[in-house]
Amino acid sequence: MIDRPYESDVPSLGLALVKALVFWLRHQGVFWLTALPIAGLAAAIAYVLEANRALVEWRHHWGWDLLFAPIYAMFLDRWIKEALLEEATPCDEADALRRSTVALRFLVFAAILGLLATVLALLPHVALSAVLWTAAASLFALMLPALAAGEPASLRQAFALGRPLQVHLFLLIGGAVALWLLSDPGLAWAAGHLPDRPWTPAIVVAAHRLVDTLLLTFVGYGLAALFGDASGWQQPEPDGRLYRRMY
Q1: N or C, which end of the chain is more exposed by having fewer CB within 10 Å?
Q2: Nearest Cα to 176, choosing from 221, 112, 235?
Q3: Domain coordinates of the chain in residue numbers?
Q4: 88-128 per-position pLDDT tens digit
Q5: pTM score of the predicted model
C-alpha cells in the first residue's frame, strides 16, 4: 500500500526550494558536468543553422524541442537520483542506484509530457496552455521520482501518492514554467545588447538551455523531497536492506 501523508506531514514547499538551492550550490560539479554538454549541443546546432542560410526555416522548428526532451529527461533522472541519495551511507546498493541508467518508462513518460506541452503550445493563449500542461503534469508527476528510485509505479499509484500534494506539485511545476516563460523575453533583451556576431545566436540558445537545466534542478529536488516524504522511501543501507515497496 502507498503511504499517504496526513496534512500535518506534508512538507513545506518553500523549505524544499531553499534546500534545493543549497543542494544545487553543493553539487556544482554534477550540475555543470551534465548541463554544459546540453548547452554546448544546443549552441553547436544554433551556430550551424545560423551559418547556413538554407537552413533558416529550421531555427525555431518544434522538432528541436522533441530532440531535447529525452536529454532533459536523462538530466532530470540523474538529478533526482542525486537528491534521493543525498548524504546516503556509502554502500554498493547506493552506488548501484546512483550509477543506474534512466529507466525506459521514465523516458517514455517524460516524452509524453514533452509532446503534450508541444501540442498545448499551439493554443492561441500561452498562459492557458501553460496552466493546462501544469495541471496535467501535476497529476502524475510523482511517477518520475518513483522510477528514478527504482520503485516502478503505475499511473494510478502515482496519482494516489500525489493526490494530497496536488497544490505543492502544481506550485512547484507551475512556478518553473512561469520562470521559463519569463526567461524568454529576458534573454531576448540581453541578446539585444550583444555584438552582432555569428556566434551571438549560439550563446543565446545555450543560455536558454542552461536556464532550462537550472529550473529542472529545482523541480527534480522538489519532486524527490515530496516523493520521499509521501511514500516513506528509504535510502539503501549497507546491510543490503531492500527498498521499501510502494505497493
Answers
A1: N
A2: 221
A3: 11-231
A4: 888 888 888 988 989 999 999 988 888 888 777 777 788 88
A5: 0.87
- Quick one: three-class SS letters along the chain? CCCCCCHHHCCCHHHHHHHHHHHHHHCHHHHHHHHHHHHHHHHHHHHHHHHCHHHHHHCCCCHHHHHHHHHHHHHHHHHHHHHHCCCCCCCHHHHHHHHCCCCHHHHHHHHHHHHHHHHHCCCCCHHHHHHHHHHHHHHHCCHHHHHHCCCCCCHHHHHHHHHHHHHHHHHHHHHHHHHHHHHHHHHHHHHCCCCCCCCHHHHHHHHHHHHHHHHHHHHHHHHHHHHHHHHCCCCCCCCCCCCCCCC
Amino acid letter at 238?
P
Compute the distance between CA of residue 224 and CA of residue 73 in angstroms, rounded to an integer.
Answer: 14
Separation of alpha carbons 158 and 141, rounded Å = 7
Q: C-alpha grid cell for residue 118?
A: 508541444
Query: Which cell is 25 given?
Result: 550550490
